[in-house]
Write a structure and sequence with these properties.
The chain is mostly beta strands and about 150 residues long. It is built from two helices and eleven strands, in the order ααβββββββββββ. The longest helix has 11 residues.
Length: about 150
Amino acid sequence: MKRLFLVLAFAANPALAQVGIDQPWIRATAPGAKVAGGFMTITNRGSTPDRLVGAASSVAERVELHINVHEDGMMKMRQVQAIDVPAGGRFELKPGGTHLMFVNIARQIKQGETIPVTLTFEKAGEVKADYAVGGLGATGPGAGHGAMKR
């Protein structure tokens, strides 16, 4: 019954079916940390480009979209207003590259937890995802990675 509802919901709103979130994960944080990095792969199954324009989570005051750039021989982080996801393409947010920055986190984020995040896309609207929490220095998603919800 639930599966039928999702199929009907996607059929009624094609933009919802267009964006998929694969392997959403976030690093655990040390006690007292104020920021955390989040990662995932966004898949756009639609025939038109879309853009990730925002994110929110109850564990952070705000969630920003960040890129890493080489500037004056140094790697620097910069906040951006949107992340483009090409039609029929994918975009990976990963350590050392584009990522979500959870700012002013309310508490320590511990390995093994699941963190709910709402992603906002220009065309697809809101997409909810459960982010699996990996180890403090994790470089990729571990077993039992998070799952997308609608």
